[in-house]
Design goal:
This is Fe-S oxidoreductase. The chain is 43% helix and 8% strand. It is mostly helical and 186 residues long. It has one domain (8-183). The N and C termini lie far apart (37 Å). The mean pLDDT is 92.
Length: 186
Amino acid sequence: MSTAPPTPRARLGELFAKVDGFFDRAARLHGPQITCQAGCDDCCRRRFTVTSLEASALAEAAASLPASRRAELAARALGGDPGVCPALDEGGQCAVYEARPLICRTHGLPLRFTPPKGTRALPVLDACPRNFTGQALDSLEPSTILDQTTLSTILGALDAAHADAEGRPRGERVAIADVLSAAATS
């Protein structure tokens, strides 16, 4: 008896778990050099778009919230500060934290970015400016540096499988604000 392969949504959950585990290991190794904690919300001071697969996870999480909470999120999405993620509440907490997209899960980690194709340059290392202060990022333990290109490739493949299964165009990006504003009606 054969079993069905895991769905893109299930695979996304696995990817989330792996990235969270990576973050936890990096935080243990680097200790106070990674200052990320509940209420630190500098990385939430923007409006983001996510893949359609991540949007479906966010919509599911938002739909599970009480109606009054969904209405709050929708109000922030439609009329809140345009420079702040509408999932962020007044206390600096994320209303959909368990379903937060990869961009949120990786913020704070040291990240390696590969230069665009056709350019000759070494990969760039970056991290939240609150983390690793006074330490050169190229001196960090390589096993705690996340490769953004690899992560984006995996997410892109999962999103393409999701789009194919849903009969949607590949590569769609969805504003988190749009997901949360639609949550009020679910």
